[in-house]
Design brief:
Blueprint: E1 2-7, E2 13-17, H1 22-30, E3 39-41, H2 48-59, E4 63-67, E5 70-74, H3 84-89, H4 97-104, E6 106-110, H5 123-131, E7 135-139, E8 142-146, E9 153-155, H6 161-171, E10 177-181, H7 187-198, E11 202-204, E12 210-214, E13 222-224, H8 230-241, E14 246-250, H9 258-266, E15 270-274, E16 277-281, E17 289-291, H10 303-310, E18 315-320, H11 329-336, E19 340-344, E20 347-352, E21 360-362, H12 366-378, E22 382-387, H13 391-395, H14 399-405, E23 410-413
Parallel strand pairs: 2-14, 3-13, 9-10, 17-18, 21-22
Antiparallel strand pairs: 1-22, 1-23, 3-5, 4-5, 6-8, 7-8, 10-12, 11-12, 14-16, 15-16, 18-20, 19-20
Helix pairs in contact: 1-2, 1-7, 4-6, 5-6, 6-7, 8-10, 10-12, 11-12
The structure holds uridine-diphosphate-N-acetylglucosamine.
Length: about 425
């Protein structure tokens, strides 16, 4: 349960270091289930989603040690998790399925939860496991899979990030060669494959639409540092562009966030990438057209923060959400601040540049909550952002503190 008091902000200035990516760390943590040797993950961010997955992995029999932000995980004799409540809280928990099945020949997981941004089925994950020879049995609220896995050819109807990761994790220990067609190309997939290869897996094609996995009898441990969080970086850049900002982001990979950087540049801000980091200068003013797509398209996770920026752009910005069917919940909260937003099915028209006034609003989901924090910076007076489910802390390590270090006035009350 958290409440944030956010004051209007005209200028953000300074520099911040970007944390490792939540969406890279979660699948990497599940990779520990593939070997009895220790997997050491460095620079792990302090997020409630990480803690939830640690609780799930502990329930799977994984031993763990945390020294600062270094996490050591080792799974001598993994087993399926017993506590269903934890799994239903976080969608990424379904990623224990593939490695458990591959390592032990059996996996039983409850159907996952997470943000209510869409239906979010796991049919593609299950189709992948079936193609690897698993018998799948669906019961209300859970799924049981068993069988010795062998390589197979899989075509994903949609390049699902989670399904690609689950299949990769399973195929790494399957008997024979697996080909995933229409695989997701996100940088977090490439990062997972890099770590798996370091653990001894045979994987080629990561980052392309076809990934080939040569199964191994066993894998070993390794030390891995996950990639920086392109969504956290994009969120801070949007905040900066809403003000007369000059912000330096350190520790990012600009090459992994081109869609967002091009869109920011279209608003009129200046972006400069140098060995010191990426600097954004100036306030955005021109409206934009955003269509969310699988990578390398514009990321759906950046749609809400970018919509917060659009509140300050003069003219009508257009947002088309093609990945999740219920991902405009934050728009309703923005309207409470005085925003002019019209929604037609999967399209949102945002007429920006009008005056916003602080009031009490809610955090609707993880990225929507972050976007409301940004919208609060734009509103006159004080905005009270209620986040009873703790959505923001699930995926951002101290977002108010990061914005505060740049000059924002955000106070968190627990
Ligand atoms: C991951 C990210 C999330 C991001 C999303 C899309 C993590 C932990 N989360 O979520 O932040 O918003 O990618 O970039 O990495 N789908 C199916 N059947 C399936 C699986 C997915 O129909 O079996 C659909 C989903 O309902 C959705 C679309 O495919 O409409 C994309 O989902 P997916 O890429 O799987 O997202 P996640 O892995 O859940």
């Amino acid at each position: 349960m958290a409440t944030y008091r956010i004051r209007h902000c005209e200028q953000l200035r300074g520099e911040v270091i970007i944390h490792s990516a939540k969406n890279a760390v979660l699948p990497l943590m599940c990779a520990c289930l593939l070997t009895r040797e220790p997997l050491i993950l460095e620079h792990v961010p302090n997020l409630t989603d990480v803690q939830t997955l640690l609780d799930i992995l502990a329930d799977c029999g994984v031993s763990m040690r945390r020294d600062g932000n270094t996490l050591t995980l080792w799974a001598e004799e993994p087993k399926s998790p017993a506590v269903t409540d934890l799994l239903s809280r976080m969608r990424a928990s379904v990623l224990v399925m593939g490695p458990l099945l591959a390592r032990t020949g059996y996996a039983r997981v409850s159907l996952p939860g997470g943000c209510a941004i869409g239906q979010r089925p796991i049919d593609l994950h299950l189709k992948g496991m079936e193609a690897l020879g698993a018998q799948v049995q669906l019961t209300p609220g859970s799924v049981t899979l068993q069988g010795k896995l062998r390589g197979g050819n899989i075509y994903l109807d949609f390049p699902s990030v989670g399904a690609t990761e689950n299949i990769l994790l399973a195929a790494a220990l399957a008997d024979g060669v697996t080909r995933i067609e229409n695989a997701a190309k996100e940088p977090e997939i490439v990062d997972l494959c890099g770590c798996l290869v370091q653990m001894g897996a045979g994987i080629t094609g990561a980052g392309s639409g076809t990934i080939t996995v040569e199964g191994r009898e066993s894998l070993h441990g390794c030390t891995w540092r996950p990639i920086p969080d392109r969504i956290e970086a994009g969120t801070i850049l949007c905040a900066s562009a809403m003000t007369e900002g000059s912000v330096l982001l350190r520790g990012i990979r600009a090459d992994q966030m081109q869609a967002v950087l091009f869109k920011l540049a279209e608003t009129g801000v200046t972006l400069r990438d140098s060995p010191a980091g990426l600097r954004l200068t100036g306030r955005g003013s021109q409206p934009i057209q955003v269509r969310t797509l699988a990578y390398p398209g514009f990321p759906t996770d950046m749609q809400a923060p970018m919509m917060a920026l659009a509140l300050r752009l003069r003219g009508t910005s257009v947002f088309m959400e093609t990945i999740f069917e219920n991902r405009f919940m934050h728009a309703r909260e923005m309207v409470r601040l005085g925003a002019n937003i019209r929604i037609e099915d999967r399209i949102a028209l945002v007429s920006g540049g009008g005056m916003l006034s602080g009031t009490t609003v809610s955090s609707t989901d993880l990225r929507g909550g972050a976007a409301m924090m940004l919208a609060g910076l734009a509103a006159e007076g004080e905005t009270i952002l209620r986040d009873p489910a703790g959505h923001i802390a699930r995926g951002y390590e101290d977002l108010p503190g990061m914005l505060g270090s740049l000059g924002a006035d955000i106070v968190m009350e627990v």
